Amino acid sequence: MSDKDNLEKFVSKNGFDLCVLCKFVTEYKTEVNIESREYYIDGVGQLCNTCYSTAEETLFEQNFIKKYLDNFF
Ligand SMILES: [Zn+2]
What's residue 12's pLDDT? Predict the structure, then answer.
């Protein structure tokens, strides 16, 4: 398996998904349904606890700014 494959799939050698931001090995095996996971963001992927907290704040801010702009214009 090439480095490129590892990068695209974000899976550890023993089958656990990696955090798409920091590549931390998460507790979820690849075959675990995303609906039964925590810290999974649609269209982004599996995150670790730490990155999820950060991403949630960022997404919240972006949504807030977008709503603000939508209302403004
Ligand atoms: Zn992470």
Answer: 95
